[in-house]
């Protein structure tokens, strides 16, 4: 079952442990363990000794941290994406009995090992295959890897339905909507409203943004995240990707998805109902809250996050997004509208452009330009299969790479 309903496999099974019951520990796999989401997940796990055990941890190149995490958690398997680090992984875990593996296929295999819960925490379309493997083993997948839904949402969701998997959104906005969405009467939902912090350049004029450095772009005012999503937050492409993600996650029409800028990141998102009610989920900006929600679901567990103090927060403000200063958001809305290859092109071009910006090859404002140009030159045909998605992704990357070459 895809999202939510009361009769999900998990509710029927009544699996627990996370909320402090005497149930057997739940076996977890964390894809992207060394990243921001992966580390937050492991932080929660370490605070509940006995409730969880680790099946597999994966990373791309941070072998030192992966070794430390595998040793600390007693994981059964540690897999590293870049085979150049296999030697270091093996040496680091020698004598521990922890299995080691390397290469993209090893990461995908780790994702597909039997586990009760898998965190899909890899960044980018590189996470698509591992996310699909996790979905196919049919338990619970906590999904942070939004890019896999953006480029191949139909196929991910088809596998979720086919395999009876429970997909729980980790992205704070989608997790918020998931918590307040009435899945029993989706026709009574008028709109879902995603909040956006506006990123570090919310008040910057275009001229100042033109000279923005990578360090300025990744310095997010509220959230501590990986570099790619931080740049996406600065361009507002992150919100664009999230609009597409939301469309794949919730039973709403495209026109029922709205975005409002909310610089304090306290209201994580909202659902408007036909009777005029708006339900919001709030909290301090700390990803351990939505991750804890998915770890304990359908129960709740304690998370060590700062408590929300609205009196101390004082003012919460909201404003419409400025699509002129932040054209990336408009490009994402257009790609969702166009459908077919467009979202996969948008995502691939954005990944290439963000990497080029972080490398100093292009300027901040060129990111959206590269995406727009790739959308106009790239494939625009309908998508019939996962292989089509992968081909579109490759073509779009090639075009965007041409455009970012200096
Ligand atoms: P990050 O850059 O901090 O970590 C990414 C992880 O993915 C690392 O463990 C890295 O080793 C691994 N990885 C990268 N490329 C890989 C590859 N080719 N093969 C295998 N593994 C690879 O990123 P993050 O901020 O943790 O974000 C992860 C995902 O979660 C992204 O899709 C992001 O949009 C989403 N997300 C993150 C946050 C956040 O607060 N960090 C919030 C919402 C959603
Ligand atoms: Mg988000």
The amount of beta strand, in percent, is 5-15%
Low-confidence stretches: 1-20
Would you count the extended β strands for me? 11
**Mean residue pLDDT:** 94
Explain what the structure shows.
The chain is α/β, with parallel strands linked by helices and 406 residues long. Helices cover 45% and strands 15% of the residues. The protein contains 18 helices and 11 strands. The strands form 2 sheets. Strands 4-3-2-1-5-6-7 form a 7-stranded parallel β-sheet, sandwiched between helices. Strands 9-8-10-11 form a 4-stranded mixed β-sheet, covered by helices on one side. Helix 15 (327-338) packs parallel to helix 17. The model is unreliable at 1-20 (pLDDT under 50). The protein binds nicotinamide-adenine-dinucleotide and magnesium ion.
Brief descriptors of the model:
406 residues; alpha/beta; globular; binds nicotinamide-adenine-dinucleotide; binds magnesium ion
TL;DR of this structure?
By secondary structure, the protein is α/β, with parallel strands linked by helices. The protein has 18 helices and eleven strands.
What's the arrangement of secondary structure elements?
Elements: H1 9-13, E1 26-31, H2 36-46, E2 52-59, H3 63-73, E3 77-80, H4 86-92, E4 99-102, H5 104-112, E5 117-120, H6 128-136, E6 140-143, H7 146-163, E7 166-169, H8 172-180, E8 189-196, H9 206-210, H10 214-218, H11 227-235, H12 237-249, E9 257-261, E10 267-273, E11 278-282, H13 288-296, H14 310-313, H15 327-338, H16 342-358, H17 366-377, H18 386-404
Parallel strand pairs: 1-2, 1-5, 2-3, 3-4, 5-6, 6-7, 8-9
Antiparallel strand pairs: 8-10, 10-11
Bound molecules: nicotinamide-adenine-dinucleotide (NAD) and magnesium ion (MG).
